Amino acid sequence: MASINGKTIWVTGASSGIGLALVKELSKYSCNLIISSRRENALEQVKMACQNPENVAVLPMDLQNHAQMEAVSQKAIAFFGAVDILVNNAGVSQRSLILDTDFEVYKKLMDINYLGTVTLSKAILPHFIANKSGHFVTVTSLMGKFGSPYRSGYCGAKHALHGFFDVLRMEHEKDNVKVTMICPGFVQTNVAKNALTGNGAPQQEDDVATQNGITAEVAATKIIKAIKKDKFEAYVGGKEVKGVYLKRFFPKLLHKVVLKSQVR
User: What sections of the sequence does the record tag as coiled-coil (predicted)?
Assistant: First the structure.
């Protein structure tokens, strides 16, 4: 089991939800943290809530601004001289039927969840190769393994991340670059409230499944355990995790189970 003590860990989407819980839990270790999201004021508050704020650097960024990623990566490296682990956690969800969803919403979901993550990861990859060490921890979703109604664009972007990072892992194993895919199910965050509807506006409402999910703190503990174990993939959630195995062995049964669940 690898240690994260002494490492520099960069977490995107760090101002709320899983990212916030992950940063707080990581701050209990003797490691350096770089925290990113679009909201600098919120990041400063997160920093002060950490156990060792002097070891936390704030780096605002917008994942949708792809041209910014090269410069942002260089800033991240400059804080502590290196980045050892990049946690690709930032993203946005969706709640709308295919028929009701504008194309621009699909484009935004791909620009943020997929292309933004790919662009940032490509920007830091040469640094990992030069150091002969690096770890991409990419938070996708169980929706990156199987689908569910009202989430077509979100599922598409998360499935795409699995394809990209599976190949990255293969191509750069020789450079000692590792990849861990984290697939959360229902976690008690604002993901449903912030989810894009068919016209691009946020849903602004929670849902029962999210409210009944595991806490973000429990999710953070499980994610850190997966990082330490250098897992290829980790499924984080409740009974919905079983969907991964149903998809693999009984896809028609999963289809019926998801439709019967009427999860919105």
Answer: none
Residue 61 is assigned to a structural domain of this protein: yes
Q: pTM of the predicted model, to two decimals?
A: 0.95
- Looking at residue 62, its pLDDT comes to 97
Check residue 134 and give its pLDDT.
98
In the chain, the number of structural domains is: 1
Are the beta carbons of 26 and 51 closer than 8 angstroms? Answer: no
Distance between the two ends of the chain, CA-based, in angstroms?
38
Catalytic residue among 106, 154, 235, 245: 154
- Check residue 1 and give its pLDDT: 64
106 catalytically annotated: no
What residue numbers bound the domain in which 35 lies? 8-261
